Amino acid sequence: MALPWAVCPSLAGTFSTRSAVFLCPCFPAPALRADDDGSAALQSRSHTCTSAHQQGIAILEKELAQLKLPDISGDFRIRHVGKVHYEISRLDLRSFHLPYSRISLVPNVGLQVSISNAFAELDGNWRVKIYFIRDHGSFDLKVENVYIKINLKLGSDASGKPTIDTSDCSTRISRVRVHFWGKFGWLYNLFYGAVESRFRNILESKVCENVVTSVRSELQPYLQTLPVTARIDDKAGIDYSLVAPPTATAQSLDVDLKGEFFSLAHRSTVPFPPLALAFPPDHDRMVYFGASSYFFNTAGFAYHAAGALVFEITDSKIPKGMGFHLNTSTFSAFIPQLEKMYPDMPMKLRLSAPSAPFLNIGPGGLLLKPVVDIQAYAILPSSSLAPLFLLSLTSNVSAVIDVKSGHIVGSLNMGRLRLSLKHSDVGTFQVRMLQSLMNAIASTMLLPRLNERLKEGFPLPLPDRIQLSNILVRFHQNFLLLGADVNYQPLKWR
């Protein structure tokens, strides 16, 4: 079984070298805040994990109703009767109800689950021996006003995954009522106190034993489904590992995540630091996830380091509707000397980023000004390449960001291109004459390819069976704030 009553395992956080991300417990909303090192903050509402909480309590009720209680036997003396030996056996816990529960934060520990006014019913058999007299019968027992308090300690393991364990558990039963049936049932009712105290001690112990076992066997494996690394493609991945154990305060549960893209071929140190964030105070979504510009810029750094920011275009890749061929005959209209030097030869354009693209996030959105080198070649009859010219292309690019199926997705909008000549192997020419042609190539080939990749998106660090809805996207200085409501999809009870 799963115990989502303990943790609503959705995350919110900033992606930075030491960014804070928050496990989302079901507690009244704390104020949204920002850490000194540029970390993220979470604002959760009391209804954030209602479905998970209710599902977990229902599962816990079924678990407790299946408790196996041991037989009880002993001796006692009754005035004017003497020594009595009794045996209580075949204890059957018919039901265990948990009508009221809540989850709260415990500073420097983690979470506390409090259950009150619980009650249970069970029955069983009794057997008695008084001198040479033996008798047996049945009994009913009702346990009322049961209070259960569970402290859950959150931590992290060597791999950077979250851990959870029970640091303290207590069960207090305020009232136990026992009624014995049979010929000497009245006799058992006389020693109610002795039997009641044993029932109380056994049941209190068994409840906490069950909770400890369930946390270790079910809740801990569930938290381990939180991905600490996510493979994006054959070039890059994202590191979501915890860099420190979670820290609970009276208002929030802080978890430091790495939040960094890396090259699968060769991981290197990111050459720039994260920026400090200042989160807005008021929001109405269940969970918030802040992605700093550092996160997006490590993506550019990782893909550039992996050699993935290269795009080659030949005539076969030119859409038929473009109305031209990629060859020297086409370009000779702008560079006349090409017709003499390389008459009617196919061409190849190699687009590459001389450095990793760097973006900025502000209230107006996500903006970047990438620099792209365009090396043009003539493809000789021998299939070797003859360099023609090297252009530098720049443009103002904006991005539209959204969240779909637990992924950050986006699309780019490109402004007018600006071209400059960095080097020419065919003599001088007017670069501005190529403006329209390069605009067409960028808008019909380069931009759609980039947007197709961004449409696939990058996964958020969500454990199993968590879905996000009612997405909110807001741009702030140096970070993107994603808000969402959280839906927990429980497994069917087996």
Report the β-strand fraction as a percent range.
35-45%
Based on secondary structure, the structural category is: alpha+beta
- Tell me, rounded to a whole number, the average pLDDT: 81
Low-pLDDT runs of 5+ residues are: 1-48
- Molecular shape: rod-shaped
Estimated radius of gyration: 34 Å
Secondary structure: helix percent: 10-25%
Q: Counting H and I runs of at least 4 residues, what is the number of helices?
A: 7
Number of strands: 26
Largest sheet: 6 strands, antiparallel
Quote the distance from N terminus to C terminus.
9 Å
Question: How is this structure best summarized?
Answer:
With about 500 residues, the protein is an alpha+beta fold.
Write up this protein.
The structure is a single chain. By secondary structure, the chain is of the alpha+beta class. The protein contains seven helices and 26 strands. It has helices spanning 50-65, 185-190, 192-223, 293-305, 328-331, 337-341, 435-456, and strands at 8-13, 19-24, 72-78, 82-97, 100-106, 110-130, 133-156, 162-181, 229-231, 236-239, 247-248, 253-257, 260-263, 287-292, 310-314, 347-352, 359-362, 365-368, 371-379, 385-394, 397-404, 407-414, 418-424, 458-459, 466-476, 479-488. The protein is rod-shaped and about 130 Å long.
